[in-house]
Design goal:
The chain has 119 residues and is mainly α. The protein has helices at residues 2-5, 9-57, 64-96, 105-114. The radius of gyration is 21 Å and the shape is flat. The mean pLDDT is 84.
Length: 119
Amino acid sequence: MFLFTGSVLLPIKALILNLLSLSATLGALVAVVAFGLQRTGRIIIAAALLIAIVFASFSFTGVTNIKQLGFGVTFAILVDATIVCGLLVPAFMRIAGGANWWAPAWLRRIHNRVGLREE
């Protein structure tokens, strides 16, 4: 950006603001994924199974590429819905325990001041 603007401050500011924006987005996703895992796990697995059935139907077409796509996507959805979401994520969250919510002291202070809370 320096070559475009001739400024040193603008590239640094852009980097910091993009980093903050991405951090906030990731934080929101983690908070939503943790909340969502507790309350919507069964719904997500049921939806994944329905989508897998739709993609499995692609395996009955006459076009080889579509058959491969149908099998591959069906397999990926079933693995994600059963092994990853059903076993690995809850197991990791149980093993990690309180460490799931760890943050460095400076980020914890920011979160205590401006973070969202369920009340």
